[in-house]
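INFO worker-7 received task bundle
INFO bundle size: 2
INFO processing item 0
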Amino acid sequence: MFKAVLEKGKSLKSPPLNLRYLRAETVDQTRLGFIVRKKTGNAVMRNSIRRVLREVFRKRFHEVTAPTWVVFDVMPPASSLTRRALRQKGEDLVTRLLALPQEIQVAAAP
């Protein structure tokens, strides 16, 4: 999942978060993943960031109509944000994702 999203997907940015997504004919269901580097903080901090972002996506999950693979790519400066600020940045990115046309990308013929 991660490799496909990073290679073929598109991204939305709101530093220190990037939201990478892929809507393609090979995607059969909506999935959520995280890339949180060790430089972001200790395990407690990284898991806390994952929990906040997972909850943000869970609240809006029902609005995703086309199967989409979503990966939150978290940069190290995210550890200095409060949970409220992190939640707000995550909500902004998810809102921008949902505002995009939810059409499936068809693979180009070779």
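INFO item 0 finished
INFO processing item 1
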Amino acid sequence: MKYFALKIAVAAVRALAIFARLFASRRADIVLISCQDDEPSSDILDLAAKLKGNPGGPNANPVHGTGREAVHGTGREAVHDPVHGTVHEAVHGTVHNTDAPYIHVISGRMRRSVGGALSFFGKMFKMLRLTANARVVIVDAYCPAVSIPAKRVGQTVVQLWHAPEAIKKFSLQITDTPAGYDSGTAEILCMHGNYDYILCPADATVPLFAEAFGYPREIFVKLGLPCLDRVGLMKRPTAGRPESPERKEKRAAIYEKYPELGGKGERPLTIVYAPTFRDGAASDAEGLARAFERAIGAECGAEGGAAGAPNADRRAGFALVLKMHPLEKEQPSLPAQGHEPEPGGDTGHGRAGDTVRDRAGGPGQWRGGAFTVIRDEDFPLADWYAAANVVVTDYSGVAVEAAAAGIASYYYIYDIDDYKERRGLNIDLRDESVGKYAFADADALAARALDDFARGPSRYDYRALSAFARKYLEVPLEGNTQKLADFIAELICH
């Protein structure tokens, strides 16, 4: 019965596609579809802006206008006037008298529920109408409006894919698992059909992408996403590479919001925890926070940070910043500001931005400072690379991204056996050059991180980190948006 209903829905989409062509935009050179959420992703917006600024390819003179405008909202398409840089909502494919590419941006995410599917159906009609006459269609995830209908002759579809690191299995790799669709559903929905090119940033991940998308290796293009340009601006400065002005600006904004991280005098060791989405299961942020409390207490000595603590005058304290996955609904249970729970008692529940600090006489206090826990929802994770000394993550693409940014990384893989069984992994971090920094035990991770950073100059192995990053990101951390725009422009020219 389930498959029968799905086949009816697919037939309806194909019929709707034929009907949509009657109302199709008469000119739609490039259509960018963001399917991660109801708002366009930063990658889609940055690429649209670059395409508008350089419509004729690598050798063309850019037209005026920022190209960054977009009409946000539920499935509304943004139309960029390539001459004046203005934006308006498309009405029956208004045509501009210009030879520059006509660019549309539309977004919408299909959720796994009857209501979500019905809501997405209206957005899908807009997508079908825009893509009917498009010369190039760009998506960042599976899009039914692109993969289900028959593709127009001469049309080129490019899949950017929003998570190029491929540490955990995804897409067709996770069919018939709790994390994915069953194989029958994936086949009926034509998952990832109609692609001509798929971005993949490293040779090491091409076989993984080929399995996940069901395509031969020949269609994969070694190009990076626009987000890697932003990561490059946040890269840790070294003796041969000065800090970028953008990195200084981001760090200043973070310190203004959280003065306990960047006040006068010495700054605390800042540790950012950014776990992957666990398909409904909560991440162990509380366990990690408690482990750092215990490790800091041991580091300070039994007297709560007396003179015997090694390097006590150097560190102003320690801060743990929680950057939970946006789809993780269950917030970690942590003590609210100024609340020290009794053993076995209520832990309290802090709100976003709450901090735990100045626990006089308790574990985690450091002479001249304290152990601070911040749950941040105001800054993108990439901005935190400007302020973080350490990143703790797991099977998330953050593992590769933070390594590329040169931020010392540790991997809290407490549930690796269960995660492998429920979803599967392409990359076991324990087998990589950074394997010595992968821990299933939070106390061991916290002790190692403090041992590497709390006693003077860092003893972290940045060479191993760099080797890991180079293996899975063979593209540079600059110029990716331009190179991708040039690639798209060439498709338009041909």
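INFO item 1 finished
INFO post-check item 1: The CA atoms of residues 451 and 459 lie 8 Å apart.
INFO post-check item 1: The chain is about 35% helix and 10% strand.
INFO worker-7 idle
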